[in-house]
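Illustration 12: Serine hydroxymethyltransferase.
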Amino acid sequence: MATFKEQEFRGLVPLKDHDPELFDLIEQEKSRQWRSLELIASENFTSRAVIECLGSALTNKYAEGLPHARYYGGNEVVDQIEELCQKRALQAYGLDPEKWGVNVQPYSGSPANFAVYTGLLKPHDRIMGLDLPSGGHLTHGFYTYSKKENTRKAVSATSVYFESLPYRVHPETGYIDYDQLERDASLFKPAMIVAGFSAYPRDLDYERFRQICDANGALLMMDMAHISGLIAAGELKSPFDLCDVVTTTTHKSLRGPRAGMIFFRKDERGFEGKINQAVFPALQGGPHEHQIAGVATQLKEVLTPEFKVYAQQVKKNAQALANKLTSLGYSMASGGTENHLVLWDLKPQGLTGSKFEKICDAACITLNKNCVPGDRSAVTPGGVRIGAPALTTRKMVEADFEQIAMFLDECAKIALKLQEKSGPKLKDFVALLDGNEEVAALKKKVNDFATSFPMPGFDPKEMKYQDPSGPPSSA
Ligand code: PLP
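Figure caption equivalent — predicted structure in token form:
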């Protein structure tokens, strides 16, 4: 056995030689992203510049603390990176640094939200967020009922450590039921109301949220994760005039790396210290400076006129999709969209969201099953959520989204035929997908269509698997 000194230095070996198995899996995933239609509303394709930051030497550095107040040495460069990120984040939302501050260290959206609750609330304080089946996020306080234990079951840590009461969308209109929220808030007296959503196709009424908060002494937090790119571009209303604190992820419509940010008002309430303390040392350790650099460079892009045009196109594409599906006789929750996503109610067709998700997957169309207004159970959602940000990044426009609507229509028609044979069980339905000729023909059309558009982040000509139909089955 060679001594440590005699052993080969392997720190510069490329991944493909160091770990061919993992390299191959990454190449398979690149192929999947390139030849599929990515319609998950929370996803996007980040740029090569961002990916370079993520794969940079910054991943080596510990930087606990804040710029110029760190617990480790060697942070003179990292301090500048984090300050650049903070500066661009405030600029992206037109915020005065005297009035607003930002913490760019949260590892992702969920930790960002929990840091706000940790910093600004006491354990067991009351919060109200949009219910998960109404389009809210888990971290807004989701709980359910356990039949087995015949009791309330806290699903999110938010509902473990705080008392949460949800508000909902109206089952018929699909719009947030602000009147009910107002009535419930006047009884529940929450310490905080959380605005924001993961699956809601409309803009928010911040004035109404503010009035309800003021009438009950509650703080107003906006989680703008899904729409932060559209807000930065001025394509949706800004929450900053009326909210006390605003959180976001950076990898959805903002199109950066996976990370989170918290914006807080700087005033006599001392949110700055409370939130910074909650992020570190209360919840996190060393910030991921490679992510922070990725966010910083993405924010540079967000500040350009091109990004505004991108955000406008995202909205136009979502509308084109909703309009085309509606003209084909399908039902969109709330009657359409004014943001980046569409909620398609499949109940009138007699299909479940789960079956539709599966058939789309088999045809290389990636979307997710989702509750739609009026659904009783989150276990069998009645529809799907479809988002435009990722494919708009691949330069698709309205006509392309109309073509996508036609592909989805084909999926629905094949699904109905298969369901006649399979009966209601998902397992039996899925068993019919493999080897089905109509699904295979649709997949080929989807692959050819998808691969005709540019791919951000990496060059398809340098991929291991360049066949539009995907890697060989032995891969
Ligand atoms: N907030 C909202 C509104 C979201 O939709 C999501 C994720 O989908 C999150 C927070 C959580 O973000 P992450 O998955 O980065 O923790």
